[in-house]
């Protein structure tokens, strides 16, 4: 199969040993790459006994067959590990340019195990790997590290690194790429895994080009597809994901006041439109991307001066803005910049701060508990101060940095305020707005995730004609939530394994496009149904990973606030999801039993018969 090196670099930091794994090509044929191969490797290398912050938990960087092929939006990579935040399957996906550099190094991925006794970097320069001391970088922020490595190895050096939060093992810390452009593997606390290994930075320079089966055919197809994508994605180019903030509020999608409130017209003050008129300097384009949705911003004066780099995405605006009711765009941008430098997930940060503000309102936390911070709703000063506390793992920040689920172990009467699934905070999309997201959040393998299925894409503008979705599904349609989630989750798993951006769906990319691209790149023909089945296999491997850790139906649950309390706003009225019938239908559609366990015949059908021994007895 072309476009695969069929080589994975393996580095044991405890022994200082560097080796190369050459898996059978069936691993790539069955699991595609990226998320799929990473999930299978993690399944085989860990178990319930594995400590997420211990030496035996691998940290796995993976590319896919589309990476470095110039397929639009393919400048991506996946990182997979057992999550220290949730204790179950963890992964994250990032754009930028690191994935391309890794693929051009001559490896499909890197697996790092063990723990170094002292801080180290891993260098992968022109195909040669080495481990070096990193004492001089320990304690430095992620922007500094990227600049330092580019100064040493040239502008083509790309980095995957942690900031001080990952060093301090903050459970909501993340892994940072592309320096001040801050392409983040943000969720699941994987920065803490990297910190536990005392690995500060993975720096890569690659000059090899993977071989493509039909380069001319691929180029001709690109000439047709790319202009169509650019035309369809004009809005994303103009305003980025932040451009949807005001519309999300009007629809009832943006979380307001820790998911308690409905209408909040102030969302217009933190929108992409406001950003474009004030602090936006230019677009940022990930590698191989014609869309350019990234925001490059700058704040040179005023209270929040000093920001230069990535502007806040919609999720950040929704969580640090809407959920905390902060209407100061520059303050949100400043807080997001802190998170980017220190390596902290803005979704978890906004969730923890909103929960803190509610606890403060209800008297469960005082300003004395909060190191003197008056955590009033809408206070930009309080939001920034608490963000800094989290980033520095200082004072009350040590508790907030553990995530909302862990906060309830200390704040005994705050369970209803912790809005999460399986320990992962809900991102800034409300299932009371897009009803298919209810079962999607509940069954996502890493916890609440809008991108594991992205079913709401198909309740907005996206279509999936290969499986009968010829036009977007009207919101609040009754029935069919299960089937759409299964189709969409399988597709998202494929995109995360091929390594192309999910926004490509808005650009018109479909299963049929993917099937055609796959044949041109690898030389292996896979039908639409075969591609979809690979996505189903990948999803079930992740589910079985969690089943082995004891996850069942009782964990596939949404917070009561989402299920029982309507927003009562103009966007959603009094809707709440009728959840249990959705979950029953979903399990049936998946071929799982009513406890959420894949049936033996389902595993056999997907070529996963070897996992049947891990089914509960």
Report strand order across the widest sheet. 2-1-6-3-4-5
Characterize the largest beta sheet: strand count, sense, and whether it forms a barrel.
6 strands, mixed
Distance between the termini: 39 Å
Number of strands: 17
Strand content: 5-15%
Q: Which term fits the overall shape? A: globular
Outline the low-pLDDT stretches. none
* Structural class estimated from helices and strands: alpha+beta
Rounded mean pLDDT score: 97
Task: Give a structural overview.
Helix content is about 35%, strand content about 15%. The protein is of the alpha+beta class and about 625 residues long. The strands form four sheets. It has a six-stranded mixed sheet. A six-stranded mixed sheet has the order 8-7-12-9-10-11. A three-stranded antiparallel sheet has the order 13-14-15. Helix 11 runs parallel beside helix 13 and helix 18 packs across helix 22. The longest helix is centred in the C-terminal third of the chain and has 21 residues, at about 530-550. The two termini are about 40 Å apart.
Distinctive features:
alpha+beta; 13% strand; 6-stranded mixed β-sheet; 617 residues
